Amino acid sequence: MDTNDLSRRKFIGKLGAGSAAMMAAYAIPSYSISAGGGIDKLAALGGTPVRKNVSWPKWPYIDEKMVEGIVKTTRSGIWSRIDDPDGTVGTFEKEYAKLFGASYCVATGSGTQALSTCVEALGIGPGDEVITSPYTDMGTVSAIITSRALPVLADLDADSYQFDAADVEQKITPNTKAIIPVYIGGVPCDMDAIMAIAKKHRLKVIEDSCQAHLASYNGKKLGTIGDLGCFSFQASKQIACGEGGAIIGNDQALMEQCYTVQNHGTSREGKHETIGAKYRMNEFEGSVLMGQLPGVKERFALRNENASYLNARLKDFPGLVPQKRYVGTESAGLYIYALTYHKEHFNNADRSKFLKAINAEGIGFGGYIEQGLHREPWVDHILGLRSYKEMYTAKRLKKYKEDMHLPQCDLACSRMVSLWASGTLLGSRRDIDHIIDAIMKVYDNRDKLNLL
Ligand SMILES: Cc1ncc(COP(=O)(O)O)c(C=O)c1O
C-alpha cells in the first residue's frame, strides 16, 4: 500500500480525543459507501453530485435599504463628492476609519488607485524600488510601475502564499523605499518580521489589504500596521461597490497628501499642488458602500467561523492543507479560502483532474492565480522602456531580470486550490459540510482521477 495514502477511515481514526460533537461532524457521509459496499461514482464519471440544484449564498450583498440609498443619491443630484463633504463618500470615509480604529480614510475609485495614490504620496518614483509579492493582483504592481518605480518581487513561502520575510530582506538595495505586503486571501503575512525589517532599513510599509477587510493580527487590524493601508471594493470583494477603494492611516499630513494626490493634485483648499491622477470615488459608489456596512462584522465573523470549521475538518488530512497562518494571526478577511493540493495523496493525479472532479460534485474550486506576476509580459515591457533604461543602469536591469526566478511562487501557483469565499463562506453548516463531503468523495475515488 502507498504509505502516503491515508484512507478516510484512517483519517477519521487519527482524530484522537475529540468531543462527541466533533466526532459526529467527522462521521462518514452516508452517500459515500453505497448499499452494495462500494464507493459512490464520481459525478464527473456519471455519478450523482454531492451538491445538486442547491445555490450558494449570493454575492455581492444587496438589500432594500441599499437600493433606497442609491435612489436617494440619484434624486439628490449630488453625484460628486466635491458637491458635499458630508455626502455618501465623506460619510463612508468616517465610518470606514471607525471600523478599523484608524484616524483617517480617503476613498478612491479602486484598490489599484488607492495603492497608486500611496506610492505617489510617499514620493516614490523613478529610480526607486518597492518590494512586493509576485502572487497578487496586477493592481499591486501597476501602482508601482505607473510611478515608474521598480517593483522588486520577493519569493513566497509556498505554504502561506505570502512573500517570505527572509527573501524580502535579501532584496533590499540602497534604492529600496518601501515594502508592499500583500495579504493574499485576506490572511496576514509574517508582519512582525516585515515591520522589523522595515524599521531596520527605514522603509515605508503600504499594506495591500485589498482582500483583507477587518482581519486582525496581534491585536491590530490589517491596514493599520504599516504607514498606510489600502482596500478594494471591487464587485467580488467582501465589501463591494462595483469598483472602489480606500486608504486608511493615522498620520494626518500623509493622509492629507493622499487626499490631494487622488484629487488630481488639488488640496481640499483648492490649491493645485502636486502630481496625481483623478481617482475620486463618486457618490453612487459611496451610497452602495454605506449600504454594505450594516451586518459587515457579522458576515466577517461567519466567514471566519466557517473557515475555522473547514480547517478543523481537514486538520489531519494530508491531501489538502489549508493556507498556512503565521503566529499572531487572529482572523482573516477570507476573500478566498485556499488550500495546497498534494497530488501524491490523490494517486498522483494532476490538480486539473482534482478540480474537474470536485467541480462536477458542485463545489467551485479553482486554481486562482495561474502564474506569478514575474512570468507576465509587463516585465519585458518595462525593461524595454526608455524611462526605465534612463533611470536604472543596464547592469541593474540585467540583474532585475535574473532575479525573476521565484521557484516557491511557481510551486504555490501549481498546487493551490481555492474557493471564492465572499459568498461561499456565508453558507450554512450543511453547505460547508458539502465541501468536505465532496473532497472526501474525490479522495475515495482517487484511483479514478486519471480517467478524467
Ligand atoms: C491583493 C490585491 N491587490 C490589489 C487589487 C486591486 O484592487 P482593484 O481591483 O479594486 O483595483 C486587488 C483586487 O483584486 C487585490 O486582490
TrEMBL record:
InterPro entries reported for this sequence: DegT/StrS_aminotransferase, PyrdxlP-dep_Trfase, PyrdxlP-dep_Trfase_major, PyrdxlP-dep_Trfase_small, TAT_signal
GO biological process, one term: polysaccharide biosynthetic process
Pfam families, A to Z: DegT_DnrJ_EryC1 (PF01041)
Keywords, in A-Z order: Aminotransferase, Pyridoxal phosphate, Transferase
PANTHER family: DTDP-4-AMINO-4,6-DIDEOXYGALACTOSE TRANSAMINASE, TRANSAMINASE
Protein family: Belongs to the DegT/DnrJ/EryC1 family.
Protein name: DegT/DnrJ/EryC1/StrS family aminotransferase
Classification of source organism: Bacteria, Pseudomonadati, Bacteroidota, Cytophagia, Cytophagales
